[in-house]
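Meet our chain:
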Amino acid sequence: MKFRLDKILSDNGLGSRKDIKRLLRERVVTVNGRVCDDPGTQIDPDADALTLRGEPLALMTSVYLMLNKPAGTVTSTADPEHRTVMDLLDEPYSAMDLFPIGRLDYDTEGLLVITNDGPLTHWLTSPRTGVDKTYYARLRDAVNDAESIRYAAAFAAGITFKDGFQCLPARLTRVGAEENGFFVTIQEGKYHQVKKMFKVVGNEVSYLRRTAMGSLSLDENLVPGDYRPLTPAEIAELRATSP
C-alpha cells in the first residue's frame, strides 16, 4: 500500500506536514538511495528503503497500543483542564496522530487501545457489532446470593434507565468469593453505563476497571499509566473480529 511521503513522515511523529516540507527541502531524506524533496512522492513502507540524514528510517503505517488507563485522566485527544490519556505517551507516539478506541470515565481504570486505525475503531465501538467489553466492578454494598441472582437476571433482561433507554442484555458474574465484586460484560459504551446499571438494581460502583475488549485482555503486568504495543497475534485477533 502506498502513502504520500509527507503524510507518512508526519504520522510517524517527524513533525507537521509543514515541518516535513521544510525537512525535505534540506535534501536529507532518501528513498531507495535517491534524495527525495517532493512531499507528494508515493512510497510503500514495506518495499521502499528510506533514510533520514543517512540513518535508516523505519516507518509504521498502523499503530496499536494497549494502555492501562489510570483514574484521573480523560479519554480524549485533548482537554483544556485535565490530563488526557494521550499525555501518558512518550515519543514517537506522542507526536503521532493517534486516538483512543472508545471512552473510559475519568475515574475508571483499565484496558484502553490507542491507535490510528479508524475502521477498526468504528467496528469495536459500535453496539451493532456486538463486541464484548468486560469490566470488574467493586460495589459499595455487599451482595448476598439471592441479590446476586436478581442482579444477574435484571442485567440479562436489559436494564432500563430513567430516561427510558434500555441497555442491551448484559452478563453478570460474581468474582470468586467476593461479596461485592462482579464482572459485567456489555456491548455498548453509554456514558457511565455500568455505574447506572448497578444504580438501577439498588447499588453503587465504588471502583471500576475494564479488563477486556473483544479478544483482547488487559496485560496485568501493566501498572496504571503504563502502555505497550500490541503483539502481532493480538492485532490479528482484533482484526479478525471486524469485516
Notes: The longest helix spans residues 145-157.
